[in-house]
From TrEMBL:
InterPro entries in the record: Glyco_hydro/deAcase_b/a-brl, NODB_dom, Polysacc_deacetylase_ArnD
Keywords per UniProt: Hydrolase, Metal-binding, Signal
Cellular-component GO terms for this entry: membrane
UniProt source species: Allomeiothermus silvanus (strain ATCC 700542 / DSM 9946 / NBRC 106475 / NCIMB 13440 / VI-R2) (Thermus silvanus)
A single GO molecular function term of this UniProt record: hydrolase activity, acting on carbon-nitrogen (but not peptide) bonds
Record's protein name: Polysaccharide deacetylase
PANTHER family (UniProt xref): CHITIN DEACETYLASE 1-RELATED, GLYCOSYL TRANSFERASE-RELATED
Chain spans, region Disordered: 31-51
CDD domains with a match to the protein in the record: CE4_NodB_like_6s_7s
SUPFAM superfamilies: Glycoside hydrolase/deacetylase
Gene3D superfamilies hit by this protein: Glycoside hydrolase/deacetylase
Length: 413
């Protein structure tokens, strides 16, 4: 079947013009240790606010801008976890941050138990909140009795178990890495080549959209992040562009209001596992748990089924493919990964995005990289000049189905 698809697609491929090479599918190494992303440069330090008088529980308050709005995120570590005390502390911190920097449009806060804090990828915070300046008064009026009246606060219930804590994967998705036999690997490469030419979903895999359609998918991995999510959403809103956010379940659980913002703005929500771990060397029950747990969180927040899945690190295996197929989902890869997570200079990131932009392409970016937010407006304008509309994964998949249906109708006539 892949051979038939390959040759049938040649004519439409010729019409669409040359394509840049897709990321190669290389064998994965079973049991390989979780590495630091190769070549990753440390991100430039963000500016921080000094509160006066200082609040001992506040570890840092960082802020950033997308050129239109400024957002701050406060990290707070406490020992007393009684909800009334955590809420009062959060209200005190948010109010003082706004007073310290009046130009802020929003203050977000994450309150952790001091003894268990291990960074953003560690155990979840105990309380989070997002406070736009226009909602500050409503936030300050909150009491433990009326918490549900404010839809931008999350209190950790501590009764939701999603399997043992797993160390997140911290590596770039530079290549699709498949763990299987040589025969299975060869079949995957052949399928990828055929899918790139014909476009559309093949089986439960989506490598490339239709190269004859002037549309590409814009995707962001690792969402949501409490500092960058509002900046990125504001940037996309101003441009009138919709995207697909592949959310990490644990992040969505702790910051559900940002996922709701994505849906409200017309964006699509995809699955990026619960803990952001590599799946290629895990057994079926663990793979199933990682994907299903994230689905449960996302569906509870959005009220919608999750159709698309992207494996962290681009790592997959026959087991991953089997689970995705059984869940009636589609695994989504990419054609364009500029490596924004390496904290590249803006010009390098822009050049890589420009070089690989194509019809039917799938652009992979991350929602937690400031340079991505900074270059995004120029990239969106570049796509417009080239006559390529950027949209969601589902739009790209459906564009091929619509074209195929139209061609079938014409043939029957």
């Amino acid at each position: 079947m892949p051979f038939i698809l390959f040759f049938l697609a040649v004519f439409s491929f010729a019409l669409a013009g040359p394509l840049a090479p897709l990321p190669d599918i290389v064998p994965a190494v079973p049991g390989e240790a979780q590495p630091t992303a190769p070549g990753t440069r440390p991100a430039p330090p963000l500016p921080q606010l000094e509160l006066t008088p200082p609040i001992p529980e506040v570890q840092k308050v960082e802020y950033a801008s997308n050129g239109f709005i400024e957002v701050a995120h406060a990290l707070v570590l406490v020992s007393d976890l009684q909800p009334p005390l955590m809420l009062r502390k959060a209200q005190q911190v948010v109010a003082q941050v706004f007073l310290t920097r009046p130009s802020l449009s929003e203050v977000d806060i994450s309150v952790y138990r001091r003894e268990e804090y291990a960074g953003f990828g560690g155990p979840l915070p105990r309380l989070t909140a997002s406070v736009p300046r226009t909602r500050l008064e409503a936030f300050q009026r909150l009491t433990p009795a009326n918490l549900k009246s404010y839809d931008r606060l999350w209190l950790n219930p501590r009764d939701q178990i999603y399997g043992p804590f797993r160390t997140p994967t911290d590596e770039l998705e530079t290549n699709l890495q498949f763990q299987g036999s040589p025969v299975q690997l060869k079949a995957q490469r052949l399928e990828q080549a055929a899918a790139a030419l014909q476009g559309g979903v093949v089986g439960s895999r989506f490598y490339h959209g239709d190269p004859a359609v002037p549309l590409a998918a814009l995707t962001f991995d690792d969402a949501p992040h409490p500092l960058y999510a509002p900046l990125l959403l504001d940037t996309l809103r101003r441009a009138g562009v919709k995207a697909t956010f592949f959310c990490i379940g644990r992040n969505a659980l702790a910051y559900p209001y940002f996922v709701r913002d994505m849906v409200r703005d017309g964006h699509e929500i995809g699955n990026h596992t619960f803990h952001h771990v590599r799946l290629n060397n895990l057994d079926k029950s663990t793979v199933l748990m990682e994907i299903q747990s994230a689905n449960q969180v996302l569906e509870r927040i959005t009220g919608r089924p999750v159709r698309y899945f992207r494996p962290p690190g681009g790592r997959f295996s026959p087991t991953v493919l089997e689970v995705v197929r059984e869940l009636n989902m589609t695994i989504v890869f990419w054609t364009d990964d500029p490596g924004d997570f390496q904290n590249l200079p803006d010009t390098t990131l822009e050049n890589r995005l420009e070089r690989k932009l194509r019809r039917g392409g799938i652009v992979l970016l991350h929602d937690n990289v400031l340079s991505t937010i900074e270059v995004l407006p120029d990239f969106l304008r570049l796509a417009e000049r080239r006559g390529i509309r950027l949209g969601t994964v589902d739009e790209l998949a459906r564009s091929h189905l619509s074209k195929t249906s139209a061609e079938s109708l014409t043939t029957r006539k």
